[in-house]
Input
Amino acid sequence: MARATQAIIDLHALRENYQLAKSQAPNSKAYAVVKANAYGHGVSYVANALAASADGFAVACVDEAVTLRNLGILLPILVLEGPMDANECQTAVDLDLELALHNHQQVSWLLGVSGGAVHTYIKVDTGMHRLGFAVQDVPSVVSQLRQAAMVSDIQLMSHFACADEVGHPFIQQQIQALDVLAPMKLPMSLCNSAAVLTLPQCHQHTIRPGIMMYGASPLLDKTGPELGLMPVMTLQSEVIALHDIRAGESVGYGQRYVAQQDSKIAAVAIGYGDGYPRSAKNGTPVLIRGQQRPIAGRVSMDMITVDVTGMEVALGDKVTLWGTGLSADIVAKHCDTIAYELFCQVTQRVKFQYLGS
Ligand SMILES: Cc1ncc(COP(=O)(O)O)c(C=O)c1O
Output
């Protein structure tokens, strides 16, 4: 039988999670964030699954937007980092894309296009210092765009640096930075998943939920299921070897795990060549026969080893690395990362199976 390593993507759960995001902000449009191959879930399936219910999509770059249009997606598509050159502005006109604009160069590229009008989002740097115009520069950019024939709509947009930590003082600082722009009465887009869930006063015109749609938590102190989200990706493999070892014997590369007692070790067919993180420490849980069991030993390219001492296990038993029954948020903590990265790192060797399309 073929290698059993697979990612099962539950599109019904995806749609439910999108609806949960929408229900938090019933008066806002909700653009589903599907950049980076829909956070590793497979953008063609995810976009098609949401096409009937989403208000729009958001991607990082024009190439990703072109992919969506080629899939036949007709909904609004917001390009979060905006154009990378003048040609991409023309593509935006031709494909009716919505563009974030975060610097003067992008504005001048846009002013050179013809043949249509673009919905723009002026990105405001409210303190994250990654992208965006300084607050004091925004009014002049707005008036420049207002006079431009190739600009149909203008929104303001910003992004929170610390929304994952509820009550973090920097959140209020960023909100207050926008106060001087309020008299312009422009529609705004401010909220990622964390802000969707915790900052209702910021929902404004358009929200941009990403990770919550995929069932993982945007908040540091909660898991996805604790927030009522359903896991979308379940990463699975199976037991391919079982070994009884004596107390004092070691497992895997570098002898990183040394058994404290006589133990049973299961080898599971998944490793960093599949995107399972090499940073997973001893003790990172996996799910076998409904029980959480700890990783014992270093993750290798094609395998992990798990301590299954004291339980019934057989070759071919299914093993869940994350997903239904084991939140990716918990696994991520053991690997000093976030579920976003776990999802994005799953490699092409893993077979993807889609449910509920
Ligand atoms: C500008 C912007 N908006 C929204 C999102 C979605 O964020 P999240 O996945 O935390 O909901 C991202 C993701 O990185 C982003 O860069």
